[in-house]
């Protein structure tokens, strides 16, 4: 299972890199054409906007998976282990609830978007809603998996405040050091 997840992460990274490259080429090419030749690629903005939305949600999914979202572990690190674990369970339940609301709203927008078309390329506007729907499902599954680890007492569970799982800490001087 771990290999499948790692392979999916790698594929997602490649897709994100490709989308970023296409976005840069489209936007830069459009600027050059607009100012240099008084013309442009009509669909460039629409495609770049769609890819940007997907890029944001895919990136958020990877950041969640790798525990790289902003967080304040200062308070949690000072709590006793049982309280820290309880805080992690409560926060996971709240995140699952928020993602459920997001998935539900994205689903409704997906259904509405199936009947609405984009201005230039005439693709279904559901493509925008899908950018939130599918990554939110992946995020919910990631959080559920970690919640299960926390509840079952698995040592590999990520509990904020327990220290960095990658072994990187900031010593007194403020510089980053590896253990």
Question: Any overview of this molecule?
Answer:
With 179 residues, the protein is an all-alpha fold. The protein has one domain (2-164). Helices cover 69% and strands 2% of the residues. It has a two-stranded antiparallel sheet with strand order 1-2. Helix 4 packs antiparallel against helix 5. One of its GO terms (biological process) is C4-dicarboxylate transport. The chain crosses the membrane at residues 12-35, 47-65, 86-107, 127-148. Part of the tripartite ATP-independent periplasmic (TRAP) transport system.
Describe the SSE topology.
Elements: H1 2-37, H2 44-65, H3 73-77, H4 81-113, H5 126-152, E1 168-169, E2 177-178
Helix pairs in contact: 1-2, 2-5, 4-5
- The share of residues in helices is 55-70%
Number of helices: 5
Extract low-pLDDT stretches: 165-179
Task: Report the count of strand segments.
Answer: 2
Radius of gyration, in Å, reads 21 Å
The largest beta-sheet arranges its strands as 1-2
Which tags fit this structure?
single chain, 179 residues, mainly alpha, two-stranded antiparallel ribbon, 5 helices, 69% helix, elongated, disordered C terminus, TRAP transporter small permease protein, cell inner membrane, transmembrane
Brief overview, please?
With 179 residues, the chain is an all-alpha fold.
